[in-house]
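Researcher: Sequence recovery benchmark, item below. Answer with residues only.
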């Protein structure tokens, strides 16, 4: 997002190794993994393979995506500026993936404006998928175990090894289901080589098990204050809902599975 006046640069993580803090972090990670009696590399290989399966499966689904962003004052009250978008992600009769805007009123944002990086984050980073072919792009560090809605998870910190021009990456924490080996939650932000005058919020995305096998993103939320070098701050709140997943079987057939009930969901559903 670009402010009308100033910018926040999003610095990439350094690729240099060997500092005292990094060494201590590696020791702590190894100790945690040892206590859990697991090999983090094995877990990474397993969930990356399952994520690749999920990505292929999701590529055969259609859904509706609803976006709402509001500018807030420092107390969290709406200031009047909004961005709303509803679009359907579907296939043409020829089987080509496309989208159709259902509702897109004129943006009334006053202090910020959306940019191409916001669109990339909305499409690729917020519903983050980490597959076998992409794990080499990231430093992935095991940090322990946790529970989300009674679901046991492995937690990993994820950060890009190198930033390439024109690409957006996820940087933050992922929670991986310890039974299905799929991501069920992410918390972080989109990063890349940032142009002057742009800043991007922290967000969290939750997934739910839709078809009895794969965990699909169903809800993203951001409530963050963007800081700019000249002292300008802007708090924003953004929600993204991914609704009504349906499997596409061919040029003229769509199989209706279990549509998502999106009413105020902020956590993955319990395992079936």
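Model:
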């Amino acid at each position: 997002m670009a402010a009308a006046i100033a910018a926040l640069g999003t610095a990439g993580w350094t690729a240099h190794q060997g500092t005292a803090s990094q060494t201590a972090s590696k020791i702590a990670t190894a100790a945690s993994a040892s206590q859990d009696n697991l090999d983090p590399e094995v877990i990474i290989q397993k969930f990356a393979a399952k994520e690749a399966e999920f990505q292929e499966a999701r590529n055969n689904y259609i859904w509706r995506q609803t976006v709402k962003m509001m500018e807030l004052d420092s107390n969290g009250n709406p200031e009047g500026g909004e961005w709303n978008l509803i679009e359907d992600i579907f296939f043409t009769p020829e089987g080509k993936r496309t989208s159709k805007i259902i509702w897109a009123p004129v943006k009334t944002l006053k202090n910020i404006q959306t940019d191409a990086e916001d669109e990339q984050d909305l499409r690729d980073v917020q519903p983050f998928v980490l597959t076998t072919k992409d794990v080499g792009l990231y430093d992935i560090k095991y940090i322990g175990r946790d529970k989300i809605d009674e679901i046991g998870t492995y937690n990993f910190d994820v950060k890009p090894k190198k930033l390439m021009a024109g690409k957006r990456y996820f940087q933050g924490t992922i929670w991986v289901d310890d039974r299905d080996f799929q991501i069920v939650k992410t918390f972080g932000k989109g990063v890349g080589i940032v142009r002057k005058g742009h800043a991007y919020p922290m967000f969290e995305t939750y997934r739910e098990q839709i078809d009895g096998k794969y965990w699909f993103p169903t809800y993203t939320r951001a409530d963050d204050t963007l800081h700019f070098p000249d002292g300008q701050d802007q708090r924003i709140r953004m929600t993204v809902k991914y609704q009504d997943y349906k499997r596409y079987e061919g040029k003229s057939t769509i199989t209706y599975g279990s549509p998502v009930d999106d009413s105020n969901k902020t956590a993955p559903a319990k395992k079936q």
